[in-house]
Specification:
Its EC number is 3.2.1.25. This protein is of the alpha+beta class and 937 residues long. Helix content is 18%, strand content 30%. The strands form 14 sheets. It has a six-stranded antiparallel β-sheet with strand order 4-3-5-11-8-9, covered by helices on one side. Strands 30-29-28-27-26-33 form a six-stranded parallel β-sheet. The protein is globular, with a radius of gyration of 29 Å.
Length: 937
């Protein structure tokens, strides 16, 4: 099956075989977007060949004489095999199983290139810089072994000064990533205990048959904890087992003379917002490998408007620092609080005579960031970020790698995903600890678009043998590199030690005492590295974590951040609340969010299918149907039917694939809306919500709100509206009354003229009032209420709030589950303007009440600024569509609403398809003449 060639996908059209070229040097230990001195050059190698061969030396390789194919660089082995037609696309159908052999083979890369001899007399050296060795590699240049590397999380840097010839042959051998490792006994014991605990909690939900293995660390070889490679490589509950291998980033031969800049750190240590001043600390590091005189650094800081601050820093022992006072400082803010001005930094390394021997350029934002953990007046402690002295309610999501094969993810794909997050009103993205430190394009985009980054170190869901000397040394090198690489980023808000390691160790062993399970990493090595290299950025031992929550442990509600998985999994993980439920549907229902009083919710989410178009693009024709093997293959959670419990309670069970997409999307969207609104009403006691998860590493069913083809789900657009800086939301009180709350997460008071309605789906208004309020900055409060006997809640009506000038989005509340709503059938009309440069304005007009009214995505890369709307009879929604191909007629875009194509309100008790009863009445709630939906009792 041939693969597509759109950005971000594997494809035959994108194979890189362009030879080598001279490029400006980029430093390994300086931030992205740096520019080197032209006197230092780099020969970029991107013409490689690839062969599978068990040989362990170049001589044995030559004797074996394997077959070579062109290699995609940047890329990986899987991509190269797809290009050569040797394997099918590993995401298509069930090809991942047919590609399993790739991880067990040894792979050789070969490149030939010419170069001038190294000029030792001038103090020149040559280094081979491999930014993306993935993962266990040995390198030879001209038959001489120049080094080895065993980490996906830092570059391989090799001095090859004495090995460069006029004609050169570079060989790189990649061993299977876990070959030769023995699982640590302590980790093996923890995994075994976790499997038993998992089985005890859900004895009917674990199986070892193909396709139903428990996800993640429960089925992985525990030896992975000794290898610094992305944990999700071995499979997760949202991803297949598909460990990448190969050259994920460019390979360069760098030629340097005398001395180089080895690193710089430019950051605001204090700011005065009112006076528009900032104190800026500057540190510079240099490496003088063939220079004996004194060196100095000349640093200039240029404001967006052109004003220049400069300082000369003598370097003693290769290091020096200075402190600048910046007047008329342009401060960096998240996009909801202000602008994102970036200063240009130029650092020149000079001899006493003034000769510049190296130069780098960078862009930084002036801001301060802090983590406020002061006592909360409702008890416990706050957990909130403070930007430039202003408290922030972080609104965002968890970022996972956009592909299992990271070498194929282009900077354009990363940029597009961050832009979509910005469109979704997100102000923070958490780079999850089971994946990868992201490429430079991600952090650059977050800097430019005003999105904070919560950065995990790459440890997840398992014990790590932190007393192993080799592993500890590798982790130390990784931490040094990544902290130095990212420390100048304005977006960087937090370093967190791990994902769920504390929580799982505590669950399994009953304590968190220091020991050989990662404790020394998270409480010693990593915080010490951050304190030394980036002291202005807070460090947090893990996620979730709490220093002093006596009742909830590391995942409680009185302190720290928490992962709210009561919803979806149906068990209490620290929130408290009810323990008895009338059925499984209620146990997993999003109504449970109302009991969560956590301080910062760093994970919570609900599973949903992507659009049908995404599933069909990756599935063989005729294979895709509800509960077909091809459908279940797209779902890596176990059991495959877990989502049925929630759908049974909220929408009823789907009868076909189209309904499954609608129903699961509705559950996710309504659940995220409910949760976000609850947590935001608790501001300032709760100070952040990060959805699990933002994106997908392959085209499957998961918790993502943007699928692998970069098509937003209904949940994205519901969250987009709930994440607006000013939110109006309804909540029902314990006595049945109805309240309207106004939440303002901004820095300025906002006057609102609200219209509050309770109306039936047929158009009769029960309540219609005007409410004028001032939404105070960083405040949340109830501004209106009505007793239940006035608005008489029922399945035939809804509450609606709107604001005349669009300061807030319209919002609504239903008074019954989706399956019980008496919605008369609506139709959606589309009126389209012309396609002008790939952009068009379209209008949706509703005739009747339309739920989940949306424009379908005809192809990846086409985006809508809003979608999946509630539209009342006569409502018009203006939507801007971008990314249209030349010649595409916007009038041909398709529209749909909930349950389109068949009755959208089917519900049958799980396991008892014969047990159903119809709602009495002359007409089905779906509005279709002659239809009578099955409604569960």
């Amino acid at each position: 099956m041939s693969a597509r060639g759109e950005p971000g996908y594997l494809g035959t059209a994108g194979t890189l075989l362009g030879g080598f070229r001279i490029v400006k040097i980029r430093r390994a230990l300086t931030p992205p977007a740096t520019e080197g001195n032209p006197m230092h050059t780099a020969l970029r190698l991107d013409r490689f060949e690839l062969a599978a061969c068990d040989a362990e030396t170049p001589d044995a390789l030559a004797a074996a004489d394997p077959t070579w194919i062109p290699a995609r660089v940047p890329g990986g082995v899987h991509e190269s095999l797809v290009d050569a037609g040797i394997i099918g696309h590993p995401y298509f159908g069930d090809n991942e199983h047919a590609a399993r052999w790739v991880e067990d083979a040894a792979w050789w890369y070969r490149a030939e290139f010419t170069a001038d001899p190294v000029d030792l007399a001038s103090g020149e050296r040559a280094r081979l810089i491999c930014d993306g060795l993935d993962t266990v590699a040995v390198l030879w240049l001209n038959g001489e072994r120049v080094g080895a590397h065993e980490s996906q999380f830092r570059p391989g840097v090799f001095d090859v000064t004495g090995s460069v010839r006029a004609h050169n042959v570079l060989l790189i051998r990649f061993a299977p990533p876990l070959a030769g490792l023995t699982a640590p006994p302590g980790v093996t014991d923890t995994v075994a205990r976790l499997r038993k605990l998992f089985a005890a909690l859900a004895p009917d939900r674990e199986a070892d048959v193909e396709g139903e293995r428990p996800p993640g660390v429960l089925s992985a070889d525990p030896a992975f904890t000794l290898r610094r490679k992305a944990t999700f490589s071995w499979g997760w509950d949202f991803a297949p087992r598909l460990p990448s291998v190969g050259l994920a980033r460019p390979v360069e031969l760098r030629r340097e003379r005398g001395a180089i800049l080895a690193g710089h750190h430019v950051r605001a240590v204090s700011v005065d917002v009112a006076a528009r001043t900032a104190r800026v600390a500057i540190d510079v590091e240099a490496e003088a490998f063939a220079h004996t005189g004194g060196l100095s650094a000349h640093v200039t800081l240029t404001a967006p408007g052109g004003r220049v601050h400069s300082v000369r820093i003598p370097l003693l022992g290769g290091r020096g620092g200075a402190l600048l006072r910046v007047e008329d400082a342009d401060l960096w803010w998240t996009h909801d609080l202000g602008e994102q001005p970036l200063y240009t930094v130029s650092v020149e390394l000079a001899t006493p005579e003034g000769t510049v021997v190296d130069r780098v350029r960078d862009r930084i934002g002036l801001r301060t960031i802090a983590l406020d953990r002061s006592p909360d007046d409702e008890g416990g402690r706050l957990f909130r970020f403070v930007l430039n002295g202003v408290p922030v309610f972080a609104r965002g999501a968890n970022w996972v790698p956009p592909s299992m094969l990271p070498g194929s993810v282009t900077p354009q794909t990363v940029r597009s995903l961050v832009e979509t997050a910005r469109l979704g009103e997100m102000t923070m993205l958490r780079v999850w600890g089971g994946g990868l430190y992201e490429q430079d394009a991600f952090y650059r985009a977050c800097d430019e678009l005003g999105i904070l980054v919560w950065q995990d170190f790459m440890f997840s869901c398992a014990d790590y043998p932190s007393e192993d000397a080799g592993l500890r040394a590798e982790v130390a090198r990784e931490a040094e590199y990544q902290v130095a690489r990212l420390r100048n980023r304005a977006c960087l808000a937090l370093w967190a030690g791990n994902n769920e390691v504390h929580a799982i160790h505590g669950l399994v062993h009953g304590d968190l005492e220091p020991g050989n399970w990662g404790w020394a990493f998270f409480h010693d090595l990593l915080p010490a590295t951050v304190a030394r290299l980036s002291p202005e950025v807070p460090y947090w031992p893990g996620s979730p974590w709490a220093d002093s929550d006596p009742t909830g442990g590391v995942n409680g509600v009185a302190d720290g951040d928490r992962h709210a998985w009561e919803v979806w999994h149906g068990v209490d993980v620290g929130a408290g609340g009810p323990t008895d439920f009338p059925g499984r549907g209620a146990a997993v229902h999003f109504d449970r969010y109302r009991y969560d009083r956590g301080r910062f919710i760093s994970e919570f989410g609900i599973h949903a299918a992507p659009e049908l178009g995404t599933l069909r693009r990756w599935t063989p024709p005729g294979a895709l149907a509800l509960r077909s093997p091809a459908f279940d293959h797209r779902n890596k959670d176990v059991p495959k039917t877990k989502g049925d419990d929630l759908m049974f309670a909220e929408t009823g069970l789907p009868a076909d694939l189209a309904q499954y997409v609608d129903f699961s999307m509705a559950c996710q969207a309504e659940g995220l809306k409910f949760g976000i609104e609850h947590y935001r009403r608790r501001q300032p006691h709760c100070s952040g919500t990060l959805l699990w998860q933002y994106d997908d590493p392959w085209p499957g069913l998961s918790w993502s709100i943007v699928d692998h083809d970069r098509v937003p789900k209904a949940g994205f657009h519901f969250a987009q509206r709930a994440y607006r800086p000013v939110l109006t939301s309804f909540v029902r009180t314990e006595d049945g009354g109805l309240e309207l709350w106004v939440t303002n997460s901004g820095v300025r008071d906002v006057s609102l003229d609200l219209r509050v309605e309770v109306a039936t789906f047929t158009g009769r208004r029960v309540v219609d009032e005007r409410v004028s309020v001032v939404a105070r900055a960083y405040d949340s409060r109830s501004v209106w209420s009505v007793a239940s006997d006035v608005y008489e809640p029922g399945p035939d009506r809804y509450a609606w709030v709107s604001e005349a000038i669009g300061t807030t989005e319209p919002n609504r509340l239903f008074f019954a589950p989706i399956k019980d709503l008496l919605v008369t059938g609506g139709t959606v009309e589309l009126v389209a303007g012309p396609n002008e440069g790939g952009c068009a304005d379209i209008t949706l007009i509703s005739h009747g009440y339309s739920y989940l009214a949306r424009v379908l995505t005809p192809a990846p890369g086409i985006t809508f600024d809003r979608n999946y709307l509630d539209l009342r009879d006569g409502d018009r929604a203006e939507i801007t569509v971008r990314g249209l191909p030349d010649g595409f007629d916007p009038a041909t875009l398709r529209v749909a609403a909930y349950g389109g194509g068949s009755c959208g309100l089917v519900g049958v008790e799980p396991g008892n398809p014969e047990m159903a009863r119809t709602r009495p009445g002359p007409r089905c709630p779906c509005g279709r003449a002659g239809c009578r939906c099955f409604i569960t009792g």
